[in-house]
Please model this.
Amino acid sequence: MVWLQGQYLIHLKNKILETGNNSNTTLDFKLVAVKCKNCDSGLVVEVNDNITYCTSCGSGFEIIDGELIPIEINFASPAMRGNGEPVYRPFWLLKTTVTILERNASGNFFKNLFGSNNPTGSGSVMFYIPAFYCSLDNMKVLAQEFTMKNPVASPQKFNTKLVGFAYGKEDAKKLAEFVLISMEAEKSDMMKTFKYNIDFHSLEIIGIPFYKISENRYKDAILGIEI
Ligand SMILES: [Zn+2]
Model:
């Protein structure tokens, strides 16, 4: 699959704007009463959320056509101190194998990934894709930095709230492709061809802690990126 970066960016920007508009137009926070399939506790689901986490037993569910389908949800421990209690934001964690079929660029990411100067080859990549609504710029920075550093070695169950899911599985896959392309393209203004294949092995959710630093600014407690 080959995308021209410019077109892809515009396509994605429109998509994010559409999604943003949709969530802005449904500002009535209807709460739906749902019971956890594993422990029968009541789950609070905001009407736009398609994922829910049971704070009683740690089960995660994706809501598809009103059905609760199990999905793995874990959390990362804060790696740095901040003011107040951290708020957990959902990220998609995508385990993939990326195969580079053809490239004409000078980015370092794949050299590091494949451990050589070989411009093609394949390797495992764990993509961290914000699942909550944020600007395209913030999404890109968070996704690129977390994906390159893969900083969460041992995710675990926490008894904490996780809400604000804006993007589902299919969005997450498209965003992972976008991040792959942007990591490669931004390192070279000479990129002409980039053919790749991504095999998605599993999609899980990870809660990443953020500290509030001012009215609309947050800093993640793992890498310290401000958004
Ligand atoms: Zn439960």
Residues 1-30 have pLDDT under 50 and may be disordered. The CA atoms of residues 212 and 225 lie 12 Å apart. The beta strands are 31-35, 42-46, 51-53, 60-64, 67-70, 73-75, 87-103, 121-130, 194-214, 217-220.
